[in-house]
């Protein structure tokens, strides 16, 4: 039945309940300098259109028999591509672009037998430029990849004149350009103008595995039942109309679980791309204050790092924050609760 389709539950099920103009997704980039931000927001109508266009693009590529690799950081295209894949029954193999190990990446791609990868040209993590496309090019030198869809995220539009000053950590960065291999590499944005925005969510059988995850030197298929069970835990934490800040720097599986759960509940995810300590360790508190975040969902690893800078956490007003969910064990719950002054829950989503 179509109600098993998570894309339907996140997008279609909320039509008529959420206005077209309501913000469904916030994205915050790495750069921040006083009142200068790198940010985007997508309305409910825009999410609906982009997900359906993306699903139709994937349909034309005939990707059904092989997993679709998403080698991405925490960018807006991650939820769009994931929801589009879930809409038409594709299996997603997510790999965090924070992982720069070329040998590891090559091994996963080879084992998966995938022929299509979606990536970014690169992205800033604090003051460090991670050159995702270059790393991927090296990883697939001896792998028969049919196509790479490249999201222009950092590299400049050639038609725009460069600035007088090149700022570290800020997009676009005119000193970085990527090579595109003819007949294999394509710019992501080029497919969307002509793609149809009409795409029904497919009825998915019990045999469908929505995710394929790197796990202990193997690829682990995640069934719909397994995914639904984990989503339910996070979904129970969210409330409709909440703004939920997701901090999962290196675990792309947790990132996907969280934004699906939040969208399914009718709440709003806020996705942060950058270093939680950039330009200083008060960045997360600044995001909570600026966007009136009510729920913070954070991995144990990220929270552990943040708690090393307690004096920075209270530099911003946190009166809207009412609860924290820690993705991991409970060891940090008491310390985090005292530091942030709110209730903390923990959930172990490990495979």
TrEMBL record:
<protein>
    <submittedName>
        <fullName>AMP-binding domain-containing protein</fullName>
    </submittedName>
</protein>
<dbReference type="InterPro" id="IPR042099">
    <property type="entry name" value="ANL_N_sf"/>
</dbReference>
<dbReference type="GO" id="GO:0003987">
    <property type="term" value="F:acetate-CoA ligase activity"/>
</dbReference>
<dbReference type="GO" id="GO:0006085">
    <property type="term" value="P:acetyl-CoA biosynthetic process"/>
</dbReference>
């Amino acid at each position: 039945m179509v109600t098993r389709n998570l894309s339907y539950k996140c997008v279609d099920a909320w039509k008529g309940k959420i206005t077209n103009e309501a913000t469904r997704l916030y994205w915050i980039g790495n750069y921040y300098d006083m009142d200068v931000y790198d940010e985007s927001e997508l309305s409910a109508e825009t999410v609906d259109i982009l997900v359906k266009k993306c699903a139709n693009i994937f349909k034309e590529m005939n990707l059904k028999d092989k997993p679709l690799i998403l080698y991405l950081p925490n960018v807006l295209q991650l939820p769009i591509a994931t929801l589009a894949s879930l809409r038409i029954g594709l299996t997603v193999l997510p790999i965090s672009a924070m992982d720069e190990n070329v040998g590891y990446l090559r091994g996963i791609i080879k084992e998966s037998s995938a022929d299509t990868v979606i990536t970014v040209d690169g992205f800033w993590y604090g003051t460090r430029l991670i050159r995702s496309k270059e790393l991927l090019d090296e990883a697939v030198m001896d792998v028969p990849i049919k196509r790479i869809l490249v999201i222009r995220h950092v590299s400049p539009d050639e038609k725009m004149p460069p600035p007088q000053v090149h700022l570290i950590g800020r997009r676009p960065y005119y000193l970085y350009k990527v090579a595109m291999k003819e007949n294999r590499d394509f710019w992501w944005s080029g497919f969307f103008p002509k793609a149809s925005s009409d795409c029904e969510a497919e009825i998915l059988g019990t045999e469908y595995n929505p995710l394929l995850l790197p796990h202990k030197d193997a690829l682990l298929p995640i069934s719909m039942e397994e995914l639904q069970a984990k989503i339910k835990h996070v979904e129970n934490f969210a409330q409709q109309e909440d703004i939920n800040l997701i901090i999962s720097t290196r675990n792309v599986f947790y990132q996907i679980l969280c934004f699906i759960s939040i969208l399914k509940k009718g709440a709003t995810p806020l996705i942060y791309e950058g270093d939680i300590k950039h330009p200083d360790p008060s960045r997360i508190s600044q995001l909570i204050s600026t966007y009136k975040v009510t729920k913070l969902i954070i991995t144990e690893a990220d929270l552990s790092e943040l708690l090393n800078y307690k004096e920075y956490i209270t530099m911003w007003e946190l009166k809207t924050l009412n609860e924290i969910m820690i993705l991991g064990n409970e060891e940090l719950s008491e310390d985090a609760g005292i530091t942030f002054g709110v209730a903390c829950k923990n959930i172990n989503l490990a495979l």
